[in-house]
Write a structure and sequence with these properties.
The structure is a single chain. With 244 residues, the chain is an alpha/beta fold. It folds into 2 domains: 1-95, Spore Coat Polysaccharide Biosynthesis Protein SpsA, Chain A (Alpha-Beta Complex), CATH 3.90.550.10; 99-177 and 184-223, Spore Coat Polysaccharide Biosynthesis Protein SpsA, Chain A. It has 9 helices and 9 strands. α2 (48-56) links the parallel β2 (43-45) and β3. It is globular and about 55 Å long. It starts with a strand and ends with a helix.
């Protein structure tokens, strides 16, 4: 599922931007279609303009309530109508260069670990500026690849900093990639979980899951996905596409 909202704060109507000749959302859809493990692909739209754009490029789309508070709620709304599906993947609409292999990894982790109700991804951080950037969400996980915590702060915090920490193998610091796979029953339960204090402080929805005692499996990919949040992000994306 690709939850798609027309309004966006920093880059208005970004999913419909089409300086490259096709809307941004179409790139995400086509990338996700390359996944080998998913049985179906659909956009969960909040506005008829989004739906019309998806139909125009031949994609599948369903309308969801404009009142949905998050992409997770939008995916859950669709999941309620699809009891035959065991696992749902939430792919952000503004990730036009998402790797199909990344989607498959998130799914495979739930197939391999029956005790995990949710999975997500992470990629090594190799730049100190990114480590210290609050907009870059960090994650730490244990040796079983279960998430311990997500934060906007640098975690783990290096008491004695050395630049070599950024190049360590295995990596010390990881950026969270906002792609999620959920078991259907748990996806429908998320909205009823209490909004944790940690979630409110960090403004990170996934902390609600950890605070409620559930396990999130974390898969590692080597290349970060590049989300489109600002006009500069989009212009850089346009230039990359023109260079291909």
């Amino acid at each position: 599922m690709i939850p798609a909202r027309l309004a966006s704060t920093r880059l208005p109507r970004k999913l419909l931007l089409n300086e490259t000749g096709k809307p941004l959302l179409q790139y995400t859809y086509e990338a996700a279609a390359g996944s080998q493990l998913v049985a179906g692909l659909c956009v969960a739209a909040d506005h008829e303009e989004i739906a019309a754009a998806v139909r125009q490029f031949g994609g599948q789309v369903v309308m969801t309530s404009p009142a949905c508070a998050s992409g997770t709620d939008r995916v859950a709304e669709v999941a309620r109508t699809m009891p035959e599906v065991d696992i749902f993947v939430n792919v952000q609409g503004d990730e036009p260069e998402i790797s199909p292999d990344a989607i498959d990894l998130a799914v495979q982790m739930l197939l391999d670990d029956s005790s995990a109700v949710m999975s997500t991804l992470a990629t090594p951080i190799r730049e100190r500026s990114k480590l210290e950037d609050p907009s870059c969400v960090k994650v730490v996980f244990n040796e079983s690849h279960r998430a311990l915590y997500f934060s906007r702060a640098p975690i783990p915090f290096a008491r004695n900093w050395e630049d070599a920490l950024l190049q360590a193998e295995p990596a010390v610091f990881y950026q969270h990639i906002g792609l999620y796979a959920y078991r259907r029953d748990f996806l429908l339960k998320i909205a009823s979980l209490p909004r944790a204090v940690l979630e409110q402080v960090e403004n990170l929805e996934q902390l609600r899951v950890l605070a409620s005692g559930y396990a999130i499996a974390v898969g590692v990919i080597e290349e970060p996905t590049i989300g489109i949040d600002t006009p500069a992000d989009y212009q850089a994306f346009v230039q990359r596409m023109q260079g291909k």
